[in-house]
Design goal:
Blueprint (H helix, E strand, L loop, with lengths): L2 E8 L3 E7 L3 E8 L3 E11 L5 E10 L11 E6 L5 E6 L6
Antiparallel strand pairs: 1-4, 2-5, 3-4, 5-7, 6-7
Length: 94
């Protein structure tokens, strides 16, 4: 099966993204050479698929958050030394 990888900006603490059904999150990071901010990369099949809204929350180290640690996507250390953690908070996500 052929796949395509897409990049999505995460400009807020809580981010609602329309992703292809079954999309797999690959990576969470910043990309300072291109633009400021945090990004999520995901892959899905090249066939046309319906989308679903999935919710992701960015949490800074030391910040309190109501998230399930079992749904941790990844962590990033930014070029200025801040550390952020990404959790999927979509209702019903595994």
């Amino acid at each position: 099966m052929s796949v395509v990888v897409w990049k999505h900006s995460l400009p807020a603490v809580v981010n609602n993204l329309d992703l292809a059904v079954g999309a797999k999150v690959l990576h969470f990071d910043e990309q300072p050479a291109v633009a400021a901010g945090l990004f999520l990369w995901e892959a899905h099949g090249t066939d046309v698929r319906p989308t679903e809204t999935r919710t992701f929350q960015v949490v800074g180290t030391g910040d309190a958050a109501d998230v399930d640690t079992g749904r941790h996507v990844g962590s990033v250390v930014t070029r200025i030394g801040l550390v952020f953690h990404l959790f999927e908070t979509t209702d019903g996500a595994a």
